[in-house]
Amino acid sequence: MIEFEPKNLLDKEFQIFIGRIGSGKTEISINFAMKLKEEGYKVVLFDMDIVKPYIRIRDVMEELTKYNLEIVSPPEATRAIDLPIFPKFIIGRLMNKDGYKILDVGGDPYGAGSIAQFRDVIKEGLYNLFFIVNTRRPETSNLREIIKAISMIQDASRMKVTHLVFNTNLRWETTKDIIMEGLNVVKEVSLETHIPVAFGCVDESGMGILDSIDIPILPLKLFINPLPLTGIKNI
Amino acid sequence: MGEKLLMKGSEAIAEAAIRAGAMAFFGYPITPQNETPEYFSRRMPELGRVFLQAESEVAAINMVYGAACTGTRAITTSSSPGISLMQEGFSYIANTNVPCVVVNAMRGGPGLGDIAPAQADYFQATKGGGHGDYHSIVIAPHTVQEEADLMFDAFELADKYRIMVVVLVDGLLGQMMEPVEFKDWVDVKKFKTPEWATVGQGDRAQRNILISFDILAEGLEKMNLVLQNKYAKIRENEVRFEEYKMDDADYAITAFGTVARIAKTTIELARNEGIKIGLIRPITLYPFPEKVIENRASNVKFFFDTEMNEGQMLEDVKLAVNGKKPVYFHGRLGGIVPTAEEILDEFKKHLGG
After folding, report:
1. Which residue of A189, A207, A219, B146 has the fewest CB atoms within a 10 Å radius of its CB?
2. For chain A, what is the total number of helices (H) and then of strands (E)?
């Protein structure tokens, strides 16, 4: 297995994660930020998800404070009300040149469209825009669907996807076959669109299934796992 | 069965309803279940079926009522405040004896409340909610797979009894993502228009009339008795529950939906400490699985009911236990989800007492 090395991506001050809902943006943003921090870089993690009602960075803040991550998130008071509010002083925080800014953006064109307003700050050439793909999610299961999703999200965000991130999984039911089948689809997308695959992700507890994979891997420590299953059998 | 997908509960509900033959969706957006109507809005037109965003929940449920009167499989989905707005429609649907499916992804209340998950609409769902003596069948899944499976059953039960079926979940069961595999598509071409449907007189000697009232008390009592007979049959035949580790249990937890899955973890924690707890999980909240609870009352030392409300199913558990054993309770309010450890701590307070 090749371990993911962020070095080549660090000529850009913004590292932005987008994708369809449920593709894994939040977990991957958190882990990407932690990886950079571990390697000694200054990072600021932005919770820009104004789409999901829960299961966001701001819902796992307590856990994340243990890692000393600097997080910019919407006001605490908006956590459980239905208001799409960005963090305070967001423009200033985005313009601050000190450190890498990692953005967890809301899913689908709705979520991605909300960052188009910052395109005067997040200018072309200053960002990496990672499109995350889980081929076991509805509407990103094949070449045609993924290309359509990329195009819709690019149009909404008015930004260009620079990299693909491979995140095919079925949670605890992920197998080597599922990973390899998904990777083939994502490589096909990369060939067709000329967008490189930056890295792949896997739950750190399931590393064994990746022995023969040929893309760099970022092992994920999972933070957002509401109500893990105990002894659940299908009814 | 097809390929396994990773889906949010709110998406799985929509996909399963579509495969189960939902021909018409009417609804109005509300958090935390907007992924469900959004999913319908993409898929229904692809299949030549109806998706309509109504101007309000009141309009949506009356559109469901109208579609249901034509024997069409119709569905609406909403969350607590939206479901409150629909209650008048529910009551009319009940006395008209037409089938439909309603999904309530409950959130914190009362009033506008918040968008966090809750279970405080148990009374509303199981005891009527709207006016008059009526019930709906209420089903409470606790995994994404079960949400998908039970949507098929919801439509079958609705048609079988000409009744509204409520699928009662909460925001968390809608937002969580799990692997899911769907049952085979129901062949909607094989659907026959029911005899009673108001779709024009056709070859019938008399036109069909569906009505929710009788202006004479004697007539209205007869209509009510039709309903009550139906509910008796449902109570007799449609009770569903899961017993989890009850065989050797000294204590029984009762819980449904999200809290039932947390309770399963509580039970593991307790068993590691040598405390033998089991779980009785009602899958149908109406009809309520009172017999299994009554029977287990002779095996266990006490019952411990836990819910994300102030003790609503607790009343049905107490009725079923009927004083044979103590029934204790722990609940969280306003959208707070209890942890497995918290439930165990609360449970332990009653040991050796």
Report:
1. A207
2. 6, 8
